[in-house]
Every structure is written in structure tokens, then in C-alpha cells.
Amino acid sequence: METLLLTPNLLIIRKLESIFVLRDAEKKAIKELSIKTISLHSDQDILKVGDQPTQCCLVIDGFTCAYKLTYEGRRQITSLYIPGDIPDLQSLHLSSLDINIASITPCILGLIEHDDIHNLCALQPRLAAALWRETLVSASITREWLLNNGQRPAYNRIAHLICELLVRLEAVGLATESTFDMPVTQTELADATGMTHIHMNRVLQALRTDGLISNNKNQITVPDWQKLKEAGEFDPLYLHLVPETAQD
Question: How far is Cα 8 from Cα 109, in angstroms, rounded to an integer?
Fold first, then answer.
């Protein structure tokens, strides 16, 4: 995967630059940030509700998710995280986590001490604004997921989610020519969209039959981007991506 060609520090820069215009001094400060890497298997809890972490985890390679459980053990996936994301960024300012974070695929994570992030933001105040913007974008995505899962029919719901993942992966250089790796299982997609596994299977088959997607193992290709956007009622505004030509 392309992310393995990047150091964790450069991956942070790439992700932040997709939503914020960084200056040279800020990039240099990020490059000097100390990051320890660890490897995880798939379906492994990283953090659980009630944990009080002293470091944040950066997704370097693989997919992770945030989820919550009912008392009966039914799972709702509330977020999907891709390389460049920091799933527990809120732990910088909230002492206890209210979500579970787990690997979906085998993952490489980067661990960054809270104190190091606070010091970085003290030395480069605009980076505090960049991280604040990242948390606001995350909240915006959550609002869109609420609308998507609550009001859109299943067919449109899945079309929208595929559109979102494609755009987010393109923003960090992990999708080319409308093709991207999609290592999320149908069961995990069902848990993320409030559907049964059987219903999810039928919806994906319908999207393939209609020519909106094609897949080869864990890879999805979007033959007609405009049609998929229309089916998903997808408008990328809520992702708040910064155009490459943006200036200070």
C-alpha cells in the first residue's frame, strides 16, 4: 500500500493538508514529532469505553472503526477510519473515551504522546487550529452518517458511503482512477449502516447489476462517478476538503 512509502509524520502532513493549508515551519515541526509504531491483527480492540489514554493513535496502514454496543451486544459502527486519520483525537481533551476503537483489517498504528501534541500546538498555534478543524470535520461526517442511515433508502445509503470512502481515500492519495481498496466486510458495512448482512448483500448486488460499482476481491471500481453520486445524493461539502490551489 502507498502509505507504507510514507513515514507516519508525512502521512499526518498529507492528511492535514487535505483540510488545512500548512506552512513550511509547521510541516517541519510535524516531521520532528516522535511517533512509535505498532502492528495489530484484524478485529482487535485498540481502545475501549472508559479508557483514559495518554497518547493518540494514527492510522498508518489498514482500516479501523469506532463502535458502540447495546446491552444485548448489538454493534453500531459509528465511524470508519482510513490511513491518516487519528480516531481518538478527542482524548486530548476528554479524559475518558465514550467509544470503542478497533481494527477492521491488519493495521499499523502510530502512537503519539498527548504531551508531545500539546507541546507541538504550543510551539505552532496554527497546528492547534488544524487539529480543531479535523475534529470539526469528523463531527460533520457523523452528522451526514445520521442523515444517511436515518433517512436514505438502503440502495442510496450504500451508494453514498462508497462515494464518501472514495473521496476520502483520494484526498490522501489512496485511490486512483475511481478504484480503491475496500477491505471492509459486508457484516461491517451492515453494522455501519443499520442493515442486516443479507440486506447488505442484496444492495451491493443491485449496485453491481446497475453498473454503479464493480469489485475484484477487496477492490472497488466506480465505472460512472456521476451516476453513483446521484444515487447516493452525494455532495462532498461536508468533508470540507481544501482545494490544492487554496492559499493562506
Answer: 9
Residue 107 has pLDDT above 60, yes or no: yes
Regarding pTM above 0.90, the answer is yes
Per residue in 165-222, pLDDT (tens digit) is 999 999 998 998 799 999 999 999 999 999 999 999 999 999 999 999 998 888 999 9
φ, ψ of residue 232 to 5 degrees: the values are -90, 0
CA angle 66, 69, 74 (to 5 degrees): 115
d(CA 8, CA 4): 9
What are the backbone dihedrals phi and psi of residue 40, each rounded to the nearest 5 degrees, phi first?
-130, 155
Q: How many CA atoms lie within 13 A of 235 on its CB side?
A: 6
- The region, left, alpha or beta by phi > 0 then psi within -120 to 50, assigned to residue 136 is alpha
Distance between CA atoms of residues 161 and 108, nearest Å? 24
Grid coordinates in use for 142?
A: 457523523
pLDDT over 60 (residue 2): no
Instruction: Give me the residues paired with residue 23 across strands.
Output: none
